[in-house]
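Structure ticket #2291
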Amino acid sequence: MQDFHQLNVWKKAHGLVLRVYKVSNELPSSENFGLVLNLRRSAAVIARSIAEGAGRDSDVEFATELKKARAAGHDLEYNLLLSRDLGFLTGPIHDELNADVLEVRKMISGLVKRMSTAPETLR
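Resolution: structure written out below.
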């Protein structure tokens, strides 16, 4: 078990959630129960799963939560693409958020890989 606040990947994911919330405020109100909800949910799942995993008792459980976070990153990537293609996000905003999603997913993958090769160094 460790303090998720100290994990760089959680910090980056949390910042992404905050940006997604801010950007999604600009979407049409008709999307409040559609894309807005999906964007926010998938972004929050990333950070929440990292935090939840850090509180688990074993590295195996932590890795499972990290993999959920990574999958949510794919979900967020698609929702951002859909928002852009529907004209709700400009290209530059989409590209910036998408780059952040890709970076967080890479960080998660790196952490999972490190855990599988040397779990004792993470606790």
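Closing remark: The helical segments are 8-24, 35-54, 59-85, 91-117.
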